[in-house]
């Protein structure tokens, strides 16, 4: 890894990210982080592994006695795709900078255990940790020699990122799906790990530049750097997880109240119709049509607050259709159907709070139904933890009877507790910041501003 981090700090940050994943995902039981070394060798080496107990209270740490990825690890030439040897998910994650999910190990083309041992019980998700080249190498990335794949193509030639690590999470059988909510959580956490690793790098460089400063300044800056790093990389993550859980709740609620409604399939039918219209135009410049289909599929299970959903829909779907129309790729008689289907997608965002649909659903007392809908569909750009408290309380009401209610309640309780800790940490950071700004001269300002950007 181009990042310079001592062994103890590296293990600490890897253990923290594994612990966070295992606590947040109840169907996960084991996590491992692999370090990807400097190009061109790009040695993949296991840093640490953790297994959570059945009670989900204690995590055991350690490495397996035998593994090709234990120190000193495997060089790129030993795990890349080559004819005549098993394909590895590690190679896929590093070369393509994309995740790999083994939702059906029996048919997993990249399961080494299946190919070599005939074992197919390894349900897992692997996610690369990516950092922008210019952030990592400070504009000197062009001086590096990147390795090649078996076909002689240079890795990451067209990418703005390098893979510095890979996270692997094992799941209980048949509880992980490609593109499922768990994979989205791990992807977000991989970004948080990349940010934290980079912040260690920047902190180290700052410390080297400040070695002649007085000990009290150095100690204060270390406290500030630690607090900022944790607040920035983890508080944003926690609120993202809360948003994800609320989106999941909205999806459950809408499925419940639309079960017998003639509008139940509004979103799905509109997306199918739009996908057919995309396919009818054939190839489009720069793969715009394919990307549009991908975004429309993503919208199928997307349940944000209506206002946020309309913004996302406009930027990710409607604007792309406008581009196709301006380019003359959509026949004139098809423009109106496109607009109509997009309007249906917008309307689908409001079905969960539609007065007519709500009045037809009589399994909840009216006061409870009104408050529940109001809380569930509030704009979550700025979080009010009191609102979250009320949602948690209402999830305990037996009238709210839908799948995964108890799971969501437990998840929100844990996430709220962590969010409160992050708030206290941010307050402590502000105290230290004021102490440095008010108690020292302006010589410290440039270092502080660099740290605030991390």
Account of the protein in words:
55% of the residues lie in helices and 10% in strands. It has 454 residues and is α+β, with helices and mostly antiparallel strands. It has a domain at 7-179: Beta-Lactamase (2-Layer Sandwich), CATH 3.30.450. Strands 3-2-1-6-5-4 form a 6-stranded antiparallel β-sheet, with helices on both faces. The longest helix has 43 residues, at 215-257. The radius of gyration is 25 Å and the shape is globular. Mean pLDDT is 83; it is low at 440-454.
How does CATH name the architecture of the domain at 7-179? 2-Layer Sandwich
Structural class: alpha+beta
Residue share in helix: 55-70%
Instruction: Kindly state the number of beta strands.
Output: 6
Low-confidence stretches: 440-454
Distance between the termini: 19 Å
Number of H/I helices: 16
At the fold tier of CATH, the topology name of the domain at 7-179 is Beta-Lactamase
In brief, what are we looking at here?
By secondary structure, the chain is of the alpha+beta class. It is built from 16 helices and 6 strands. The protein has a domain at 7-179: Beta-Lactamase, CATH 3.30.450.
Helix-strand layout with pairing:
Blueprint: H1 7-24, E1 28-36, E2 44-52, E3 59-61, H2 76-79, H3 89-96, E4 100-102, H4 112-116, E5 124-132, H5 133-137, E6 161-171, H6 181-209, H7 215-257, H8 266-280, H9 288-300, H10 306-326, H11 332-348, H12 355-360, H13 366-376, H14 385-395, H15 405-439, H16 445-453
Antiparallel strand pairs: 1-2, 1-6, 2-3, 4-5, 5-6
Helix pairs in contact: 1-6, 6-7, 7-15, 8-9, 8-11, 9-10, 10-11, 13-14, 14-15
């Amino acid at each position: 890894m181009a990042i310079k981090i001592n062994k103890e700090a590296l293990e600490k940050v890897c253990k923290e990210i594994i612990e966070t994943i295992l606590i947040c995902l109840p169907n996960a039981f084991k996590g491992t982080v692999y370090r990807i070394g400097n190009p061109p060798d790009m040695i993949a080496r296991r840093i640490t592994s953790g297994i959570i107990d059945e009670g989900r209270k204690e995590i055991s740490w350690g490495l397996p006695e035998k593994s090709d990825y234990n120190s000193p690890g495997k060089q790129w030439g030993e795990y890349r795709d080559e004819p005549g040897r098993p394909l590895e998910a590690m190679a896929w994650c590093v070369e393509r900078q994309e995740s790999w999910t083994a939702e059906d190990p029996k048919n997993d083309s990249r399961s080494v255990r299946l190919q070599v041992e005939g074992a197919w019980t390894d349900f897992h998700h692997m996610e690369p940790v990516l950092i922008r080249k210019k952030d990592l190498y400070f504009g000197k990335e062009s001086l590096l020699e990147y390795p090649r794949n078996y076909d002689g193509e240079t890795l990451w030639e067209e990418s703005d990122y390098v893979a510095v690590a890979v996270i692997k999470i094992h799941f209980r059988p048949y509880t992980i799906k490609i593109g499922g909510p768990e994979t989205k959580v791990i992807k977000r956490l991989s970004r948080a790990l990349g940010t934290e690793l980079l912040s260690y790098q920047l902190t180290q460089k700052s410390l080297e530049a400040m070695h002649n400063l007085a000990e009290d300044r150095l100690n204060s800056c270390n406290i500030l750097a630690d607090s900022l790093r944790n607040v920035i990389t983890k508080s944003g993550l926690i609120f993202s997880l809360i948003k994800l859980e609320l989106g999941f709740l909205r999806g459950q609620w809408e499925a419940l109240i639309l079960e017998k409604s003639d509008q139940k399939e509004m979103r799905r039918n509109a997306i199918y119709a739009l996908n057919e219209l995309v396919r009818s135009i054939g190839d489009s410049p720069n793969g715009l049509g394919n990307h549009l289909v991908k975004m429309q599929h993503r919208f199928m299970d997307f349940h944000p607050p209506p206002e946020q959903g309309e913004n996302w829909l406009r930027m990710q779907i409607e604007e792309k259709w406008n581009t196709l129309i301006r380019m003359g790729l959509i026949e004139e008689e098809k423009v109106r159907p496109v607009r109509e289907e997009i309007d249906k997608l917008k309307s689908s965002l409001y079905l969960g709070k539609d007065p007519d649909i709500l009045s037809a659903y009589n399994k909840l007392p009216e006061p409870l139904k009104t408050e529940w809908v109001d809380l569930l569909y509030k704009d979550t750009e700025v979080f009010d933890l009191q609102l979250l408290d009320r949602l948690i309380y209402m999830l305990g009401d037996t009238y709210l009877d839908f799948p995964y209610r108890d799971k969501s309640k437990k998840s929100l309780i844990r996430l709220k507790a962590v969010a409160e800790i992050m708030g206290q940490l941010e307050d402590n950071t502000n105290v230290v910041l004021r102490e440095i700004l008010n108690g020292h001269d302006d010589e410290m300002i440039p270092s502080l501003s660099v740290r605030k950007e991390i």
